[in-house]
Amino acid sequence: MPRLLATQSHVVHGYVGNKAATFPLQCLGWDVDCCNSVQFSNHTGYGMDKVFGNITEQHHLDQLLSGLFNNFPKEYNAMLSGYLPNKDSVRCMGTNYKRFKMANKDSIWLMDPVMGDEGVLYVSEDVIPEYRALALSEDSKVDIITPNQFELEILYDKKINSMDELKLALLHLHKTIPIIVVTSCNSKIFDDQEYIYCIASMKGKEPIVYRVPLIDSYFTGVGDLFSALLVDKVFSLLTGKSNQEFAQQVNAVLNIIQRVLHLTKSMGPKNIKSKIGSALDMKEMELRIIEARDLFTECNGGDENFIHSRL
User: Fold this and answer.
1) How far apart are alpha carbons 159 and 306 in whole angstroms?
2) Facing residues of 6 across strands?
3) Residue 302: left if φ>0, alpha if ψ -120 to 50, beta else—which one?
């Protein structure tokens, strides 16, 4: 049974961060160890006045991660990192994950550089140089990143307004990162507002464009679920446990995500679109992770072919 270490947020109620990633990975046969970067009552979409809990201080996070390394230095086949609230937590995670990676050379590290979306930062600005150092340094140990376009632009340090600029950004980051999956791109680049566009790029190969129908609702935890499913697929690919190519692996992940979102929406009140800050709406639209348990283990994830073109 492969073992994964996940360092990201935790909520007591609902499904984001480690709560969105752990159960699906367990369904897929992973033994998951979780290190919580924050511990909140619920996610922040409920409104900041309805969020209770605390951030894991840097020295506590370091105690946990360094303690794990000292006790179990060669335990992990994969590492997953997600939401980290400040520069100290990003630096702490990076330092310890590098140690794990050096001791487990065949392991893979998926880093979701959670910083914001649609031009808005969710974290302190001081995390930006820390993420750039982890992703772009010559000794980077990161194997996969899953930014949205805004986060890709932050790492690249340039705006992206066209497909040519998107290609240049991917080429730049591929100097140090083998696999890049841009989870959502500005639809204006593709002149189509009815779809979400995802880009999957493996170093040395032509990037693949996926066109996924937009679901008219607001969901949280989708990126965390996506990263968890992707790390499983890539691990299967790199270890020869799957005969699917990379393009099909990402397509399978997108299929599962779409089915989970449709299931979530179908189980909520009719005509609800979920408004940020509305506790009732947020509660009704929490991802139906448990109800979707049979979807995670389907070999191909579904029948939809979202592959649209090559970039």
Assistant:
1) 26
2) 34, 80
3) left
Whole-angstrom distance, CA of residue 56 vs CA of residue 114: 16
The CATH number given to 3-310 is 3.40.1190.20
Are 229 and 296 contacting, i.e. CB atoms less than 8 angstroms apart? yes
Distance from C-alpha of 150 to C-alpha of 136, rounded to nearest angstrom: 17
- Which residue has 């392991």 as its token pair? 107
Q: By C-alpha distance, which of 221, 183, 196, 214 is closest to 45?
A: 221
CA distances, 257 to each of 53, 221, 247 (Å): 29, 11, 16
Domain boundaries, the chain: 3-310
Structure tokens at 63: 């105690």
Mean pLDDT, consecutive 10-residue stretches, the chain (311 aa), reads 97 97 98 98 90 96 97 96 96 97 95 94 93 96 97 97 96 98 92 91 96 90 97 94 91 97 88 59 88 90 90 87
Token representation of residue 232: 């499983």
CA–CA separation, 145 and 264 (whole Å): 26
Sign of CA dihedral 30, 223, 289, 18: positive
Strand-pair partners of 208? 200, 310
Work out the number of other CB atoms within 10 angstroms of the CB of residue 235: 21
What's the pTM? 0.95
Residue 190, phi then psi, degrees to nearest 5 = -105, 5
Do 200 and 234 contact (CB within 8 A), yes or no?
no
Strand locations in the chain (E): 3-11, 31-40, 53-55, 78-81, 108-111, 116-117, 120-121, 144-145, 179-185, 195-202, 208-213, 307-310
